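Aim 2 progress update. The chain analyzed this quarter is reproduced below.
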Amino acid sequence: MSDEPVSTDREPPEPEGFFEGLDFRAIAVGVVVDHAATILFAILLVAVLLPADVEVEDEAAIAAAMEAVAGSTQYLISALVGGLICTVLAGFVGARRAGRRFAQHGFAIALASAALVLVLGPAGAGESPIWYEAFGWILQLPAGILGGLMAQWALEQPETQAE
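Predicted structure tokens:
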């Protein structure tokens, strides 16, 4: 042990700002993943829920059936849950790509995705019930944060080796 005095002339570290250390390319990747996965999920969901007896040649019948499906509670709940899962996936992918500040990256991805929806408008035509909109907006940011935290957890797990 040294008898030299410990220097106390250093200033305490300043807290980092929220945007310091964020990788904006990773955020952009997460936003693309969020929107691409959500669009793909919505297409698959409509394909699954669309009645099988709809005439493929009759565009009016297809449009009416799609409108009926999109307004059903089954579709709305499935779309809400699936969309939130897509946001978790996006937060995971973007935060994993960044490799640091995982929760902040997940939050930023969800926030940027929400901002893009506000700028471009929702993809679906027609009005959604208020409960659907409320749950979607309220849960989107926590979903992104969850994805970021899952990426951190996945990177912190020790690798198992096969013996």
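The chain has a mean pLDDT of 86. Helices lie at 24-49, 59-70, 73-98, 102-120, 130-156. These observations will guide the mutagenesis experiments scheduled for the next reporting period.
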